[in-house]
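Late entry, calcium ion complex.
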Amino acid sequence: MKLPVISFLAVVAIQASDATVIAVDINSSENPTATQTDFAALVVGRNDGAGSLTTGGILFTVVGGAGSRDRSGPNNLTRDTAFPATAAGSQIGVTFGGAGDLPAGEWKLEVWSHDNDGGTPVGDLLVGVTIGGIEQTPVSATSGGDIDPPAAVVMFTSDGSSAYGLYVEEDNTNNRARLNGFRLTLVPEPSVALLSGLGVLALFRRRR
Ligand SMILES: [Ca+2]
Ligand SMILES: [Ca+2]
Ligand SMILES: [Ca+2]
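Prediction complete; structure with ligand written out below:
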């Protein structure tokens, strides 16, 4: 029975390696080259909070930004952030191109964020997806500085025709939302891998 099991795992592995992954590190223009490995740098102006990047065929544009800073930190991803103008209920976001630019399918969005000014995080934030510019119900993000786990994970489905984006919002009046970076992964359709694996399994069973 060893061979069928190995075949099943091989099919799943092939499926996983085909996954579309778009990882973006928000870099401050103070230090635009301190980029996390396997991430693309979206450089945001220190004093105007503006920036954009085309990667994976999609134009990512910061919205609501007012500035950015490079701080000392545990890694190149979370050491630098972009932030909005005001503290109370403040928001900063990134658009994933325009209508129809994000391929259809189920996406996993991982977001790294802070609500402090470098150093020790002081609380939580809210992270959500926008569809056609409309904010969807957010999830709570644990403010932190590590790469694993990310501060928030949001699952959403693209219809392949709407415009998508993300937003990070401060959850109280004392702190400020800060965006470190994000990663989009197009989730492989499990039915394909599973059915292929089961098919191989059935084939070997029949031959025994
Ligand atoms: Ca960086
Ligand atoms: Ca907070
Ligand atoms: Ca960053």
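Residues 22-187 form a domain with the Jelly Rolls fold (CATH 2.60.120.260). Will revisit in the morning.
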